[in-house]
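Structure ticket #2291
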Amino acid sequence: MIKRLRRQLISIIMLLVSIVLVSTLGLSFWAAYNAQSELVANSLEHALARDFDVFHMIAQERPMAEARGSMLCLVAEVEYDDGELLIESNNAPVAIDDSTLKTVVLRVVSEGQASGSDNELRVAWDSVATGEDWRVAIADTTFVHMTLRDQAIHNLVITVLALLALFAIAWWLSNWALKPVELAWEQQRRFVADASHELKTPLAVILANTQILERNESIGDDAMRWVKSTSDEAEHMKALVNDLLQLARADESVSGSSASAMRHEEVDLSEMVESAALEFDAIAFERGCLLEADVDPDLHTNGDPEWLERMVRILIDNACKYGAEGTTVDVKLQQASGHTTLTVHNMGNPIDPEDLPHVFERFYRSDKARSRQAEGGFGLGLAIAKSIVDAHGGKIGVASTPQEGTTFTVVL
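Resolution: structure written out below.
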């Protein structure tokens, strides 16, 4: 649980700060792009308003401090002479070759593109028509593209470095923030484990004494009913203590705090599931259901055989318990993509959608799926199954609809 909380906290911090960082840098880049575009447009507009000689003089003689706010543009005058296209340009110090100049002029004259830009040619242009002739101003935008490219690279580097630093800070903050929670969780786990262990001895004494009293023929029927009631409740308490101990051991295995909490040996899952299905076949029949098992042979895994067997029995028992009369409980064990998948399906009252996210929580019950019935139950069965699956590094999930029924899926 603590690891999941840490991952969620780090993810939330990274997501929120990443959105702010990317938005800020994106707005900065957009502002720079607009500023550069406006600079190009203003320079073209000013160039079109100047005469050749005046522009040439300004381009050559104006101090650089005054020229930083604008760009130097090549201005061309285009006219027809007996059907022939004539181009005359000024001598502005702009690196635009003749082929690019002709390409732009043809776009203005032949294609009607009075203004525009070409990223491949790295030029932008604007034009005005003077009768049948045209005047075209062309700006070399190489510097603009280089500036925007450099800013994009700088923004990317800043983003990557900032996210790496943010991840380190978020990791430290999550450890600091969750340290009290981790301590409280560990204390709670230890308390449950210790209390459950300590309760086993008095419960054993109570059960032994009630068994002795049940064999005492001198006790009357009225008193015997009290003895039987005490014995039944003691058995329920014993089952609860065993469940709590199972959860505590599973928590230790998941957290890695106890290397001996779970055994590690090769387990024949196929044989285990087939045996469990055969055992519950009679129970399903008594409840008016039919149990069918489809098990692929020779499927093995590494883990604790007692824990895995209990997980399988919990899921099959749960399916038989809540399956509708006259329906079939399907148990399948298959292997695909290197994973072994166990599915247990039944038809019956579906689990409410609002209850689905909570069915694996401890002591959680819903009216349809997790209520305690006459045969007992403390809302720990599915929680134990999930703890066992987590301890083995697997995943467990549930889907439930009125049309498809309820299916529990375990992937190991």
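Closing remark: The first strand starts at residue 73 and ends at 81.
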